Amino acid sequence: MTHHLETSGSRIDLEHVEQAFTRGQGKAASSLTVLQDVNLSIAPGEFMALVGPSGCGKSTLLDLIGGLTRPSRGAVRLDGRVVTGSGLDRGIVFQQYALLPWRTTLQNVGFGLEAQGRLSRAERVEKARHYLELVGLAGFEQHYPHELSGGMKQRVAIARSLAFEPKVLLMDEPFAALDAQTRETLQDELLRIWETTGRTILFITHGIDEAVYLGQRVAVMTSRPGRIKHVVDIEGREGRDADGDWRSSPEFVRQRHAIWTLLHDEVRQSQRHEALA
Ligand SMILES: Nc1ncnc2c1ncn2[C@@H]1O[C@H](COP(=O)(O)OP(=O)(O)OP(=O)(O)O)[C@@H](O)[C@H]1O
After folding, report:
1. How far is the CA of 268 from the centre of ligand 1 (A)?
2. Residue 251 burial (CB count, 10 A)
């Protein structure tokens, strides 16, 4: 899939990022290093997938880019500027939809814009409608969350993040709770949205298939303390546009296997270390 639009996404740079947490209190306090010397650059408008063993610090990394936490060492930069807090230039989508149950689809998407207070009511409604249409929910504006399927709720959450027109979309296993078919549909929709909007996307997943299918590159992390073990360029993505099942092609299977091997080695090594400890 080619990227037609001029990008409106930001560049992300992680430089020697370390994150340690203190656990317990007083004499029982101990420090847990979750990320160590993480270096990664994501180009403006790039779609980067991130995989790694459970507990290696993927969500911690996403929190740092989102500005929800600050690194113990190193720097997180957005277009060259050090990130010091959260901001509307970065939208975050989690596995849980976190919609307000008493608000309609349209109101859920418009809610954040309301808080932002920059647009008139008519402008907010127009923007919310536009993004609902983009995620394939035209006609569901007046539905409440309980009237929507899981996939539809996640579409609302994505529309809500997009409505701010952030330069970066940070996605933490957004499709993990969905059934396989809905997940594949949403993967294609996300790619279409990415093409249309030119945002930079960082997408955390446990699914190797999902990472290869979505990412222009896939960053593989080591087990804790997490570092970037390898960044794999995904080849032959045009195959996704062609008729047929790209996931079954030898090209896809080969790349899927390469990432599986990187991850598998990592998990095995960490188990060996734990056994020796
Ligand atoms: N605020 C915190 N205080 C203390 N420890 C934390 C904190 N946040 C995360 N951790 C620890 O950091 C480690 C990494 O957590 P994180 O959620 O980033 O991993 P992950 O790779 O996203 O995991 P998973 O793939 O299982 O979702 C875990 O051991 C977790 O317990």
Report:
1. 20
2. 14
Out of 110, 142, 165, a domain closes at 165
Residues of the chain with pLDDT under 50: 1-5
Domain that holds residue 155: 96-165
pLDDT of the residue at 5: 47
Q: So what's the pLDDT on residue 173?
A: 94
R_g of the chain computed on alpha carbons: 19
Cα(250) to ligand 1 centroid in Å equals 35
Residues 6+ apart with CB under 8 A from 223: 52, 53, 55, 56, 266, 267, 269, 270
- Ligand 1 residue neighbourhood (C-beta within 6 Å): 21, 23, 32, 34, 52, 54-60
Ligand 1 atom at minimum distance from 22 CA: 4
Are 21 and 152 within one domain? no
Same domain, 104 and 213: no
Report CA(101)–ligand 1 centroid distance (Å): 28
Residue 6 maps to a domain = no
